Amino acid sequence: MMDIHKILKQLPHRYPFLLVDRVVALEKGKTIRALKNVTMNEPFFQGHFPHRPVMPGVLMLEALAQAAALLAFDALDTSPTDEMVYYFAGIDGARFKRPVEPGDQLVLEVEMLRMKAGIFKFKACAKVDGELAVEAELTCAMRAVA
Fold first, then answer.
1. 114 DSSP 8-state letter
2. pLDDT, position 16
3. What is the pTM for the complete model shown?
4. What span, in angstroms and rounded, lies between the C-alpha atoms of 125 and 138?
5. What share of the chain is helix, strand, coil (3-state, %, to 5)?
6. 4-144 falls under which CATH superfamily?
7. Where do runs of H (alpha helix) occur along 76-108?
8. Distance separating alpha carbons of residues 146 and 59, to the nearest angstrom
9. What is the pLDDT of residue 81?
């Protein structure tokens, strides 16, 4: 549906902060399913934790937000510009259900609940092998850079 080359055109993030590898399903203005392949080469594993590498929860939420941004840009038939920034505005009900380790593939599932005046509300979760790893409601805002 959307390979890394298309993702790089839609998201301003770059290594080591680009956390979406592929989009496998996209229903305009409704849902997106994307993948994040977690490898031992990720820079955060050097310190989180050297004896037992675990993907930080905040980065799982960031991966979900990046997938949500792809859904929002597609819903608006737009792409980000240097004059626009897509911000986190809120995270509600975040729950972490299982650790995510090197070798896991995070399946990012995001549903758009609301879109109004540049404010977006999403229901999001990430799973590994069908098992829930994290869930949350995300609020994001698209704003012009002053």
1. E
2. 94
3. 0.96
4. 10
5. 20, 45, 35
6. Hotdog Thioesterase (3.10.129.10)
7. none
8. 27
9. 84
Output phi, psi for 46, to 5 deg: -60, -35
User: Which residues are tagged catalytic?
Assistant: 48
Q: Which residues of 118-132 are buried (b: 16+ CB within 10 A; e: fewer)?
A: eebbbbbbbbbeeee
CB 44 within 8 A of CB 107: no
Cβ burial 2-17 (10 Å sphere, 16+ → b, else e): beeeebeebbbbeeee
Contact 41, 21 (CB under 8 A): no
- Backbone phi and psi for residue 19, each to the nearest 5 degrees, phi listed first: -120, 20
Count of residues for the chain?
Answer: 146
